[in-house]
């Protein structure tokens, strides 16, 4: 009997050792597997090591700043809560980290990623407009911001000189990138719609180490913290990979439902000028399509879509996104119009009810309305933010002068509802000063 007990104890010990060895090998394989999970932000080209794109030891465009990839790897537990908790990041070592995996899901629900990534594509005469957009993002945002600026080569030096002149806060960084498209089809992509506009389609493939990203057009202005739209990432369900607003609220004036010659999302289509993306999910997803019964990944589907629909699309890359989400509607989170408020929401009468109730959160001055006299209400907001100097009193230097200018636009359709242009802005300024008073 005693011999039997010894044999059983020995077998049990061997079983435990085998189990521990299996766990360690699994953890090691997860560590070495490429793209096995979210990449640590310290290895991101936009990490603090890549702070700004000027001389004196600052990183070079695009490939700059890997950060210290090896530092504190097992201490980092920044796994996005939408990733399965057993899928460790590929650059996190297996030692100890594997045993922490079961706790990471709840950890990330209460400790979300601290850095917000914002991307913009600037070509031609868009330098001033882009800088004004970046200023608006900096004014109210709470968490650290990382800007990814894709621009033509001749604009890089101007961006460096301007941004280094007013970005002095440690929680704001930027990285400049060249405009790049797949070599075999670069010319075709660049001439699609406006120059460089389709660059946004390739962001998940270029920024491979960025987990989530907010893309905005150059003509966007933030009237509340970027943190608030960033928080929509936490509202995605298990199938959603991106968030956008409808193209129109009123079908009677909608473009897609009246003129489109291709599939589009929902009743009136979607507008891609403000696009929040979980890029880890985008890179992993296989998309349904009308070209083949086989589902295709993001990098595989773009060119076939362009070849099939290039004679039928009017708005370029936005049309391609509409086609993709028409076939994969479960993958899109739709946020209200006040997060992407455009002239169409007021020039034919006010038709964004959320903005009427709470104000405009993100202003999108498409069709060049910041630079002509067709929509003076939009231009007044743009000029106010462009002329604001960091450190000045926001009430006296921004809000009050803006209100005076907006009252002068009451003869226009958008000017009749000018209160919606300052309602949220007033609250954002009040909240900012309240945060400062609390230290």
What distance lies between the first and last C-alpha atoms, to the nearest angstrom? 72 Å
Question: How many helical stretches?
Answer: 15
For this structure, the CATH topology of the domain at 116-335 is Spore Coat Polysaccharide Biosynthesis Protein SpsA, Chain A
CATH first level of the domain at 116-335: Alpha Beta
Q: How are strands sequenced across the largest beta sheet?
A: 3-2-1-4-7-6-10
> Which second-level CATH architecture of the domain at 116-335 applies?
Alpha-Beta Complex
Largest sheet: 7 strands, mixed
Q: Report Rg.
A: 24 Å
Topology, number of strands: 11
Mean pLDDT: 81
- Output the CATH homologous superfamily of the domain at 116-335: Spore Coat Polysaccharide Biosynthesis Protein SpsA, Chain A
What structural class should be given to the helix and strand makeup?
alpha/beta
**What is the ordering of alpha helices and beta strands?**
HHEHEHEHHEEHEHEHEEHHEHEHHH
Detail the poorly predicted runs. 28-112
Give the percentage of residues in beta strands. Answer: 5-15%
Label the overall shape. Answer: globular
Percent helix range: 25-40%
